[in-house]
Write a structure and sequence with these properties.
There is one protein chain. By secondary structure, the chain is mainly α. It has one domain. Helix 1 packs parallel to helix 11 and helix 2 packs antiparallel against helix 3. It is globular and about 50 Å long. 48% of the residues are buried. Belongs to the 4-toluene sulfonate uptake permease (TSUP) (TC 2.A.102) family. Keywords: Cell membrane, Membrane, Transmembrane, Transmembrane helix, Transport. It comes from Thioclava nitratireducens.
């Protein structure tokens, strides 16, 4: 069916349900979970295509959970980061067939894992307010470059939010806003690149249902997490994501 075996479809649905739950609970990791899992039984382009539409829809829910006003406020506060991903995701999407996936996985996974271990060990990487514009712009460029190729642009922002010790609700909301912005650009870019096509679009649409179901369950878990535990789980999942990306890099 649409280039996939029945068992692959059910496996993809299960992965997406779990990924949606994690996203609802901590605000991120859905594309990373989906991509790293899908890549074990699907071709890279198909794995990327399946995560695009559920990522788009779930980020609408996450960005506007506290209303339009709160979302607009987040856009103003993080406008430099958002501007950079708008510019650089389309640019890097054109390189999806040029830059080897293992190289990109390794370059993204290693620093993510290192940052997570550093933070979990009790060390901090303070982010002085006077350097915010430069840091936000630089991380936005990095996120955009990785996003167009791999569908993953969240880790640089997550690292930034942890470094400035952003409150839980604000952190989850801005992740949703930024992810939504990137998801819109990513969807348009890969309609042009051909990753989203007549064969992959129906499957990507199918993944929306388990993603939404998982996310609603995750929202309930998020509301019960205190800030310390939320931060701890964020770092753990960030580290796991880094390990998965390195695993994919080594497996080629």
């Amino acid at each position: 069916m649409f280039g996939m075996e029945v068992w692959q479809i059910f496996a993809a649905l299960g992965v997406t349900l779990f990924a949606g739950f994690v996203k609802g609970a901590v605000g991120f990791a859905m594309p990373m979970i989906m991509l790293s899992s899908f890549a074990s039984f699907l071709p890279p382009h198909q794995a990327l295509a399946l995560l695009i539409l559920p990522t788009l829809v779930t980020n609408v829910m996450q960005a506007f959970r506290q209303g339009v006003g709160a979302a607009v406020g987040s856009i103003k506060n993080y406008r430099l980061f958002i501007a950079m991903i708008i510019v650089f995701i389309p640019i890097s999407a054109t390189l999806v067939d040029v830059i080897p996936q293992p190289v990109m996985y390794a370059l993204l996974g290693a620093p993510i894992l290192g940052f997570s271990i550093w933070q979990i060990s009790g060390r901090q990487i303070p982010m002085p307010t006077r350097h915010r514009a430069v840091t936000e712009t630089g991380l936005g460029v990095i996120a955009g470059l990785y996003g167009g190729i791999s569908g993953i642009w969240g880790p640089p922002l997550i690292i930034y939010l942890i470094s400035i010790d952003a409150p839980k609700q604000e952190a989850v909301r801005i992740l949703g806003v930024v992810f939504l912005t990137g998801a819109i650009i990513l969807t348009g870019s890969h309609l042009v690149s051909g990753v989203l096509n007549a064969q992959t679009i129906p499957l990507s649409l199918l993944m929306i249902l388990p993603a939404l179901a998982g996310m609603k369950l995750g929202f309930k878990a998020q509301d019960q997490l205190d800030p310390v535990r939320f931060r701890w789980w964020t770092l753990i999942l960030l580290g796991v994501a880094g390990l998965n990306l390195l695993r994919r890099a080594l497996m080629g």
